[in-house]
From TrEMBL:
One GO cellular component, as annotated: chloroplast
Alphabetical list of PANTHER family matching this protein: GLUTAMINE SYNTHETASE, GLUTAMINE SYNTHETASE, CHLOROPLASTIC_MITOCHONDRIAL
Organism: Turnera subulata
UniProt-annotated location(s): Plastid, Chloroplast
Subunit structure and binding partners: Homooctamer.
Example GO biological process: glutamine biosynthetic process
UniProt keyword annotations, A-Z: ATP-binding, Chloroplast, Ligase, Nucleotide-binding, Plastid, Transit peptide
EC number: 6.3.1.2
Keyword Chloroplast annotated: yes
Classification via InterPro entries: Gln_synt_N, Gln_synt_N_sf, Gln_synth/guanido_kin_cat_dom, Gln_synth_cat_dom, Gln_synth_gly_rich_site, Gln_synth_N_conserv_site, Glutamine_Synthetase
GO MF, any single term: glutamine synthetase activity
Protein name per Swiss-Prot or TrEMBL: Glutamine synthetase
SMART domains given in the database record: Gln-synt_C
Length: 431
């Protein structure tokens, strides 16, 4: 993200009131997707594609007519898709239920349960896990008044299960000191699109490599951009859902993309990212492409995938905020190991000091330096206030963990005076 702007006035609303439109994403949009390789007659080092044309009388289109039925004239009932995080801490699960009427707030929804033994979150002899609805979004797939519901998971006794990271984040964001600072987040989610059968990046020759990095970042053209339809469909679907997605672009490695969510306030940032990931999973499912959040999907001289997190507090955004930012950087340097351990699996393969990353073993900061742990923008330095960018989180990070840690380390945690002085000297910070 270039900068963190003021959040919209709707950030607390989640779901706009039902409109007369019943629009949703349909399978027609995939008729022109160029994503499946024609394996016959492929010259070495080149890629050929075919268009997936659909006959208007096909079974697919007859099913599509049913999928796009507008229920509003016939019933007040809606479909709620309950979404939660599975046992790996990164996989998303969901199931549907009928709700008697449209809702506007999670408190109007019932709790539900699922078989935790089938998701790696409970033993078979005591497998019931309870879903608590926490945030709702409009459903871009079913349209109408139907909704997506972000949930977190608890035992029947009301204790958060180990993979429920939202619970701890909510505690941090409900602390009055944090509330008073109104923490804003802008999260840059990078991801890689893979071919289904070979799990090789989209647009790459099977078993081979494209030309070196350089022309692909924000590039256009059939030889530079692979998966634009998916990125654009995801962009519109997130806007439809009510997610504050702020932009998207092709990334440095071909077949890799990025979208930005924010500014989001507090716990909303984690909810928005998880919902946006779910929507992306569903779109790639329809497109027949595999979504990867691996922080280093291809070894060698290729960029990895991160989830850079832009962050500011009220004090940072006000006059004199640059000194507050430097104090926050000092705190982050002292808790570097704690943050790194929570910033995503496999991140050591990405944070090597190369390909626009800092080394995982050391902490650094700089103005306009993308090779540092923490980057401060030129405008922030010039204006004496603004935000910082934490470039350490991996693409598969848990946004509840990262956003909560940033708030905890910079607002709630206080180092000893001795540690603060030593860190300031090491980082050449005057706080």
């Amino acid at each position: 993200m270039a900068q963190i702007l003021a959040p919209t006035s709707q950030w607390q609303m989640r779901v706009p009131k039902a409109s007369s439109s019943s629009g949703s994403l349909t399978t027609k949009m995939w008729g022109s997707l160029l994503f499946r390789q024609n394996k016959k007659g492929i010259a070495k080092g080149s890629v050929s594609f075919k268009v997936l044309a659909q006959n208007s009388n096909s079974t697919v289109n007859r099913i599509e007519d049913l999928l796009n039925l507008d229920l509003k004239p016939y019933t007040d009932k809606i479909i709620a898709e309950y979404i939660w995080i599975g046992g790996s801490g990164i996989d998303l699960r969901s199931k549907s239920r009928t709700i008697s009427k449209p809702v506007e707030h999670p408190s109007e929804l019932p709790k539900w349960n699922y078989d935790g033994s089938s998701t790696g979150q409970a033993p078979g002899e005591d497998s019931e896990v309870i879903l608590y609805p926490q945030a709702i979004y409009k459903d871009p797939f079913r349209g109408g008044n139907n909704i997506l519901v972000i949930c977190d998971a608890y035992t029947p006794q009301g204790e958060p299960i180990p993979t429920n990271k939202r619970h701890r984040a909510a505690q941090i964001f409900s602390n009055q000191k944090v509330i008073d600072e109104i923490p804003w987040y802008g999260i840059e989610q990078e991801y890689t699109l893979l071919q289904t059968d070979v799990k090789w990046p989209l647009g790459w020759p099977v078993g081979g490599y494209p030309g070196p990095q350089g022309p692909y970042y924000c590039g256009a053209g059939a030889d530079k951009s692979f998966g634009r339809d998916i990125s654009d469909a995801h962009y519109k679907a997130c806007l439809f859902a009510g997610i504050n997605i702020s932009g998207t672009n092709g990334e440095v490695m071909p077949g890799q993309w990025e979208y930005q969510v924010g500014p989001s306030v507090g716990i909303e940032a984690g909810d928005d990212i998880w919902c946006s990931r779910y929507i992306l999973e569903r779109i790639t499912e329809q497109a027949g492409v595999v979504l990867s959040l691996d922080p280093k999907p291809i070894e060698g001289d290729w960029n990895g995938a991160g989830c850079h997190t832009n962050y500011s507090t009220k004090s940072m955004r006000e006059d004199g905020g640059f000194e507050v930012i430097k104090k926050a950087i000092l705190n982050l340097s002292l808790r570097h190991k704690e943050h790194i351990s929570a910033y995503g699996e496999g991140n050591e393969r990405r944070l090597t000091g190369k390909h626009e990353t800092a080394s995982i073993d050391s902490f650094s900061w700089g103005v306009a330096n993308r090779g540092c742990s923490i980057r401060v923008g030129r405008d922030t330095e010039k204006n004496g206030k603004g935000y910082l960018e934490d470039r350490r989180p991996a693409s598969n990070m848990d946004p509840y963990v990262v956003t909560g840690l940033l708030a905890e380390s910079t607002i709630l945690w206080e180092p000893t005076l001795e540690a603060e002085a030593l860190a300031a000297q090491k980082l050449a910070l005057k706080v």
